[in-house]
Amino acid sequence: MPNSNGGGPTNSNGGEPTQLVDNFFRLEAGRMVSTLTRIFGLDNIDLAEDVVQDAMLKALQQWSYGKVPGNPSGWIMQVAKNRALDILRKQTLVQRKENEVGEQLRRSNEQSFAAELFAPEEVKDDQLRMIFACCHPVLSPESQIGLTLKTLCGLGVAEISRSFLAKEETIAKRLSRARQTLRDARVPFEIPSGPELSERLDSVLQVLYLLFNEGYNASHGPELIRWDLSAEALRLSELLLAHPSCNTPKSNALHALMLFQASRFPARLGDHGNMLLLQDQDRSRWNKTMIEWGLFYLNQSAAGTELSDFHLQAGIAACHCLADSYEATDWRKILSLYDLLNAINPSPVVALNRAVAVSKVHGAEAGLVSVTQMENTRSLEAYYLLYAVLAEFQIELGNFQAASAHLRKALDLTTLHSEQDFLRGKLEYCEKMSAV
Amino acid sequence: MPDLSSETRFMLILRGGKADRDFSPSEYGRTIQKYLDWIEGLRKKGVYEAGEPLEETGRVLSGTSGAIVTDGPFAESKETVGGYFIIKARDLVEATEIAKGCPIFESGGGLEVRQIAPIPSVEPA
Question: Do the beta carbons of residue A37 and residue A45 sit within 8 Å?
Fold first, then answer.
């Protein structure tokens, strides 16, 4: 399976690790908070986070003198484990679940009970349990994403608020409200099973998809691509797939879709950080390994009878990834997939993308017609891509004045610098052409 | 390359600093990395000899035969010694310059530079 994130420290000095991979603490924090939350109870995520904070502080105090332990991951977990057992022994806190566990610890042989609590086969599934808790349908989508980023991806409040251009205070409030909601709903810390699984898994997949797109589309902020968010979505999706009950056709389809999209990351930006459209991308820079894995998962996703929108979107993305050039793109197949997508999950954005496919197969005039036939275009009126697409059709038809008007509208509607630069370039071209 | 064997050794005693309770996991990683990079730089220059952290807690002994034993903390946490480095330098001025590069100052901590007193070896009679 492709590894989307780096592991532990690397060696560069005669066997003594001197480089901590940037993600090391982030990933460890996600693992440790999940395991400690199982032990302390979902009521006590805050306590779990405190313990992890203490462990990282100890690492900072000790490793900064030049010696990083040979197994940093094991070291830091051991510190957290000792601290957790300390807390359970002391029974100083009054939370319900924690006392139960503390009680058991005091009654049984401490060593064997502690070993049970931290047994590898339990620890292995803790992050999955946490994914299901963070993506529980009682939470709003923004809380689900926030909580996932905080507890599973190890992002700090300041980092999350930068990602969403929100105030730190807002994010902090959102997180504590989300935790309270989980407490009130008495959400169990477990991988759901039985009839509940399918709905809960859908909710998880939806959050991963949003998280991936947050990184891929960067709906706000100056950066076009925030790979870290998308990489996290891929990492968590890999965790899901590794568990038999979560390895469903739909989760395979989502994984394939994300891999296909991610394969184009390296080619999406031009030399000046400007956005490049599919037709302008250097396809040799697409990540071949990711495309191959994408095809693998797409194949896996065909195992059942289910045809989800992830299946169709992955199919469309695969068509693009498999075309050697933009000209060689199989637009007929793409159009048929959009037709299906439009049938099972109609949305203005799907219809707009379908219109592009229509124009490729039947010409720009037909594309324009299919935009005018779209229903519910109201929700698209504030969407810059609608105008960018209309401009593209008009350019193809040689109507540069009409194209310029659409481009100006599109420019008003996007705040991303890279997109603005792109649209401005088009506008200049159209203005020049309409002056001729 | 100067002949380091003839140079004087200094101990840098680090106090306080290092962590902010609100650090995110990545910030812990980045902070540790700054220390590792600084140490690596000293190693490359051939002036690094050793460095070790101290545990936060211990005992303080005083009085006759160390009869008065107390637990830490020994002083306010910003004064607590966190560990030490041993470096080589020509003189106190140079050792001080090296010490200025220590990342501890970025987090409000401080350090003390002390020369390790040389004990001349006794020539066999």
Answer: yes
